[in-house]
Task: structure prediction
Amino acid sequence: MFKKSFKVKIILPTFIVLVALVVMLNIFLSVRFSDLGDSLINERLIANINTLKLYIKDSRENSRVAAVSMAMNPRTIEAIKKRDTNEIIRLLAPTHDLHRINYYTICDSEGIVLARTYQPDKFGDSISNQQNIKDALSGKISTYLESGTIIKVAARTGAPVYDTDGTLIGVVSAGVRFDLDSSVEELKKLFNSEVAVFRGDTRIVTTVTEDGENAVNATIDPDIAKIVIGSRQEYSGDMNIFGRKYKAFYMPLLNAENEAFATIFLGIPATDLMAALDDSIKNGIILGILGLIVSMALLFYIISSISQPLVKLSGDMDNIADGNLDIDINIKSEDEIGHLGKSLQKVVDILHKLLEDINIMIAEHKKGNSDYWISTTDFNGGYKILADHILELSDLGMMDHLTGIPNRRSFDNRMDLEWNRAMREKKTISILIIDVDKFKKYNDTYGHQRGDAVLQTVARTLKQSVKRSIDFAARWGGEEFVILLPGTDQVGAVSVAEQLRAEIENTRIPCSETKTVKVTISIGVNAQIPTPDNSIGSFISIADDALYKAKKSGRNRVVFGSDSNSD
Result:
């Protein structure tokens, strides 16, 4: 009678169990991969949505900076005053790339177009019906998402232009277009997704193609249009476009009347990803079977010697894979499995510290403390590279890399923090808005590198002028800077501003290898005790108006602003 050996008794049932496990594992992986595919697409869609919103916000900011900068440019003012269309276009057209915009439209004080940089031959018509133009003609700088006769969808800002005697002589309107093929192609590269822009419910530009042609003039599904256009709400869901599955997102664009006049569509293709996941499942099955066959020869030894510590390590690794780093890998053996357990514990400890440091840094940055960074010297090898990259990404978001001081986003965080703190403690808070006088002329005369040196010198002086740890200096944008002085009243703020102005005036800045020049600054100052009836916007606006008066009254001076003396 045939007697089974001990090995057979172990291997046969174990083989059966392993086969069953391989089958169940592949079934489980099939389900998990499917869920993973949906999760990856959803996470990518969320990331793209956030990036799109930031892109639109940046477009609005770029248009605002461009419009305000050109409206204050003396050469632009003179050209508008002379109604010199060619000179206006010559001055403004080269600044498109500098300000990351697509066009300028300039009109006179009646709203009659003097020049268009995107259509130099078209002028003389009225654009006074556009909201950003209306606001600018009334003396207000405003930014909107708008639609016009020629430019169908754009973020645009209107800024009033004043003569030297304070007379309104025209408007500079700057914009970033979303209705160009190049615009959606740029967004497609940014998101790695299909992009389309609708005006109303009709697609006007898109990266989606049908038979090799861009599929324009199609309309939004009526049910989706009710949500996006009718209710002005975002919509996401699964769609089938020309036989391909997409995870789709529609975002309404609201104009000055809060109407959804346009829509941006993002479509992430799901077909290719799901096919890749199916291939991964098939390859997993094949590799599982091959591994099972190869492992049979050593199965008895493996089962008897290392099963228990491997089960423990497997559970610990599942916890790590699920994001649980608060575990203790307690493998006491001194063999390779024990060494693996100790190494894995070391990895967990490093990841735990890195995550903890990042969380603290993020919390500090949200509080407005842009000086707090993780210490990358605490990590080695690839972990240090990862920490360095994280630090670099954080630095990109919080610091201005030209001047080495905090940027506008960092200032906004600190402004919110100090404003609320001053309101709670009923203390005065002061702000200085600084502008480098005639910087555009200096830049045009001596070149951008010398202009950058001016900005770096001013930034360095600002940084040295803030003596207390609670004081905060940042680059506002272009040639403008800002200093926040918590707990400082009007007298103290004006004193700091005058010292800073004098120090810059006395600083000689090289404009060539053998020559230096004097650069001056104008400063607008405001100080107040915040109350619930005040707003940060009005607080900053008063200082900005004071800066405007300083520039208007001759530059190289400090002007203090208040509600009573603001225009």
Notes: Confidence is low (pLDDT under 50) at residues 563-567. The chain has 16 helices and 21 strands. Residues 449 and 504 are 19 Å apart (CA to CA).
